[in-house]
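Running this now, will post back.
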Amino acid sequence: MIRVGIVGYGNLGRSMEHAIAQNDDMELRYIFTRREPLSIKPITADVPVIATGTEFKYCDEIDVMVMCGGSANDLHTQTPQFARNFNVVDSYDIHAKIPEHYKKVNDAAKAGGKTAVISVGWDPGLFSLNRLISKAILPHGKSYTFWGRGVSQGHSAAVRSIDGVLDARQYTVPILNAIESVRSGNNPELSTRQKHKRECFVVAKNDADLMKVEQEIVAMPDYFADYDTSVYFISKEELENKHLTLPHGGFVIHSGKTGDNNESNQVIEFSLKLDSNPEFTANVLAAYARAAYRLNSEGTVGCKTIYDIAPSYLCAESNDVIIRMYL
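Update: finished.
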């Protein structure tokens, strides 16, 4: 059995508990949290909840730690910290800072003789892998990534930070005409605004200036200013009835040319439609936790990404079974 620890117990941490339960070769040993441990009620019976800062007492009892904090405020410090003493896996998703995160985690994991796997979820993660494979197969081509329709937790938090907002959900919505243009093999040049739009469902405070709130949302740099953004003010009851789940998904489409004079259009497409973003991400993390454990057992140390790990390391079955059943 692969003995797993969870660091962080928000949406992803709770989903990770379910994911571990679905894998017969894994068992959850500990949950680590910065909150008061007694306030956490795990789904799994008798699993100890421990305050972070004392985790190093449990090095011999955990084969791999799954880091379930947020990228902006947690993983950039927690993953390198834990990688010195544990095999770790995370879903760090700030694309521009992944090289910096990789270096910090690689140095820590090598110093401790551990294996770390970073940025495995669905984007970065499965979408990243499909972008690379598609480019390798069709070098005369172009990749396009579309996200949604789904809830962006970071953008929702940005809306909630505005004065006058009680609660909010933000949906990223791909523009269908852009998707169809890519699928046709036209290789269009698309601006940010042409690929996605944003929809915000906002519960405002009673005394809020709705026009001011809407203007602050649509003009917010890095989040909404570059998109066509619609703002809908709704009641708290409507938000709770219609917008509490966390669906997401999207497409990676690579359109390329082959043959004499590049006459043939070839299109590769990978898509996801997810009822629950955190639940799906947790299942990806579980598979790569297995890979981290196996790689370390073979003597591999340092930081790895989805590009470095053979698919067979993800599966509980033996290579003989994999070849017979899936190849």
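The first helix runs from residue 11 to 21. More later if anyone needs it.
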